[in-house]
Amino acid sequence: MQSEKYQRLMQDILDDKLYRHSLGVAEAAAYLAEQYGGDVQKAYCSGIVHDYGKRYNSTELINKAKQLKLSLDHITRKEYRLLHAPVGAALLKAELKICDPEILRAVACHTTGRSRMSRLEKIIYLADHIEAGRNFPGVDRIRQIAGNNLDQALLTAVNLTIMSVLERGLLLHPRSVAFRNYLLASLRKQECRNSDKEK
Length: 199
Description:
Layout: H1 2-13, H2 16-35, H3 40-49, H4 58-67, H5 74-78, H6 80-96, H7 101-108, H8 119-130, H9 139-146, H10 150-167, H11 174-198
Helix pairs in contact: 1-3, 2-3, 2-8, 3-7, 3-8, 4-6, 6-7, 7-8, 8-10, 9-10, 10-11
């Protein structure tokens, strides 16, 4: 089974704290995939490898990006917390020969989100927020919503993330804003459809 292979690999290359986080994300992703009709095995595997890029520091990631001729926007280049996701996805392909485009996209956008995310991308983004080791104000609320409405839980998570980024004076990636607006528009459309059915 591929997920067991990648689990052993991640245990070897990550420190204990990050490995426990990766396991937690994999378990949360499998739960969400089961809840929302996704591929449980693929979700678990994506969760295990989602922080593969964090084995490298920011300088190493920039150098890897150059070697791979990866195009990075200026905001991602300046924020290590964003950098590890797209470069990590490229490294999964180059170093581990993971070629599944769904997994690679889910890893690449798990920090910022983006407009029109696939179900797997949404699952990995949310699993990264709600895994059992996470403990921040609002996480229990996100976990509660996650059991009933995937997009509403994602909107709650991205709203908290954006507020945290602004409060800390960090660079806010426009993809996060696009993701929030996409979710909000989608949820409003769902509300209108439900309202029309009730008439």
